[in-house]
Design brief:
The structure holds two protein chains of two kinds.
Chain A: E1 9-16, E2 20-28, E3 31-40, H1 43-56, E4 60-66, E5 71-74, H2 79-84, E6 92-97, E7 101-106, H3 107-116, E8 123-126, H4 128-134, E9 141-146, E10 150-157, E11 160-168, H5 176-191, H6 197-233, E12 241-246, H7 253-262, E13 265-270, H8 273-285
Parallel strand pairs in A: 1-4, 4-8, 9-12, 12-13
Antiparallel strand pairs in A: 1-2, 2-3, 5-7, 6-7, 9-10, 10-11
Helix pairs in contact in A: 4-8, 5-6, 6-7
Chain B: H1 15-100, E1 106-112, E2 116-123, H2 126-140, E3 143-150, E4 156-163
Antiparallel strand pairs in B: 1-2, 2-4, 3-4
Classes of the chains: A alpha/beta, B alpha+beta.
Chain lengths: 286, 171
């Protein structure tokens, strides 16, 4: 309809990581005229924010991703392929992409996320969808979406995602050994005279590095397992590169670690997951 | 494409916006309707004006024609009246003339024109004529000429030419 061109469309995306990430893009004739990005500590704040937006606009499209492990990618749209992998097709929802591969999610996860929020969610995507949409090089490439509490990995071969995995970090906080070390550092800080601020700053940096290292280590540890599984069960071809889609500003240490530990070339790309989700919704809405 | 769910249809406008839009739409419709009404009215008014102008021109032409006809009728009327007056004068003149004729004299014919009277007749004698007929003729006409012709029986045929000035012709 012609009139639709002149009506503002609002694309709202959100997902839960260590807190609720929220992005609202108000668009008119495919141009963003306003953007609101927020983070909320609890769900009610998110609900209030969305309800407020819903009061002002009618053309509002709310999207989110499912981050739980009860989902995956199958390099085929054929249901026999699901049966082969012992996936009960009665209890999953499947989305076929280009008739080549498909995303699936457990139905109860889908219902759970719809029940969790009091507003209608228009688009619910697999966590792998924004990765797949973003991935340009798709032969022997690993894409790793990094969130605070989990990573999602998609492995490509001959343009098709043949491997997908979600690894939730068991403890996002520092490990016990690291806690001890941190306590020691805290003690050290107390011992050092308050006048020596510079030294304290250095120690703080060390402390931060240690925290980051724990996440990076978790990622490398998870990747090791995934790559092992990938080589064992999916293909014999060597991976060319790992692309990290970074949503938490992880820093370059990870790249170094990957090269040292996994002996693989890597690249870290700042990834605005919320924008990517809205991009998908915008395309779905055309 | 990627989504596990499909969005519900979204209304383009909120309920109160819809009400406002309906109100605006009705207002615009009324405005447009009234404008169209005025335009049509003006159009028909112009058309009527043109028609009236045409009729006015036609009636003016008709009035001119009627005036011409009226003048002609007046002229005819005047002419008719003149003729009537003339006829009555002639009638009176003839009556007067016939009254002039004495008993012994018989008229054969007479010709009456505007300023001339020619009388043909028979008289027993010239004296009868000169005594009884000539004096009234001379009193009326300015000039009287009489020619006699004797008949075998002794009576006279005569021709009397009497003229009068044109101005006094029918007085």
């Amino acid at each position: 309809m012609l009139i639709e061109k002149f009506i503002k469309k609002v694309f709202v995306s959100f997902y839960k990581d260590e807190n609720y990430k929220f992005l609202c893009e108000i668009k008119k004739q495919n141009k963003t005229i306003k953007e609101i990005k927020k983070e909320f500590e609890n769900k009610n704040e998110l609900i209030n924010e969305i309800n407020e937006i819903k009061e002002d606009y009618t053309q509002i499209f709310i999207s989110t991703i499912i981050t739980s492990i009860n989902q995956g990618i199958i390099p085929s749209c054929n249901k026999h392929e699901y049966k082969k992998r012992e996936i009960d097709i009665e209890n999953i929802k499947i989305v076929c992409i280009k008739n080549k591969y498909s995303f699936y999610v457990a139905l109860y996860e889908l219902l759970a996320i719809q029940k969790e929020y009091p507003f209608d969610i228009d688009f619910i995507y697999s966590i792998f969808a924004p990765i797949d949409n973003f991935a340009k090089k798709r032969d022997n490439y690993f894409y790793v979406l990094i969130l605070k509490e989990r990573i999602a990995i998609v492995g490509y071969k001959n343009e098709i995602p043949i491997f997908a995995d979600i690894i939730e970090f068991e403890n996002n906080e520092t490990t016990e050994d690291e806690e001890d070390l941190l306590e020691d550092i805290d003690l050290d800080i107390e011992e050092i005279s308050e006048d020596i601020e510079e030294e304290a700053e250095i120690i703080d940096t060390q402390k931060d590095d240690l925290k980051f290292t724990s996440i990076e280590n978790e990622i490398i540890k998870s990747l090791k397992n995934s790559i092992k599984e990938y080589y064992e069960n999916y293909t014999n071809d060597f991976l060319e590169k790992i692309i990290f889609l970074d949503t938490i500003s992880i820093g370059n240490n990870l790249k170094k670690l990957t090269e040292d530990e996994l002996l693989l070339e890597s690249e870290i790309i700042d990834f605005d997951l919320l924008k990517e989700i809205n991009l998908l919704s915008e395309r779905e809405n055309v | 494409m990627y989504s596990f769910t499909k969005p519900k249809p979204k209304p383009l406008f909120k309920e109160d916006t819809k009400l406002w839009l309906i109100f605006y739409f009705i207002s615009i419709l009324l405005f447009v309707g009234f404008s169209v009404f005025l335009l049509l009215k003006a159009y028909f008014y112009n058309k009527d004006t043109q028609q009236i102008n045409k009729e006015t021109i036609y009636l003016k032409q008709k009035i001119l024609k009627l005036n011409t006809q009226k003048e002609l009728i007046f002229l005819q009327k005047t002419l008719y009246e003149n003729i009537q007056i003339k006829n009555s004068v002639i009638k009176t003149s003839i009556k007067n003339l016939l009254d002039l004729i004495p008993d012994p004299i018989t008229l054969d014919k007479f010709l009456l024109s505007q300023n001339k009277l020619i009388i043909y007749g028979i008289t027993p004698t010239k004296d009868v004529y000169n005594m009884l007929m000539l004096p009234p003729l001379e009193s009326i006409f300015e000039k009287t000429q009489t020619y006699f012709y004797q008949l075998p029986n002794g009576w006279y045929k005569f021709k009397s030419i009497n003229t009068i000035k044109a101005d006094n012709a029918y007085n």
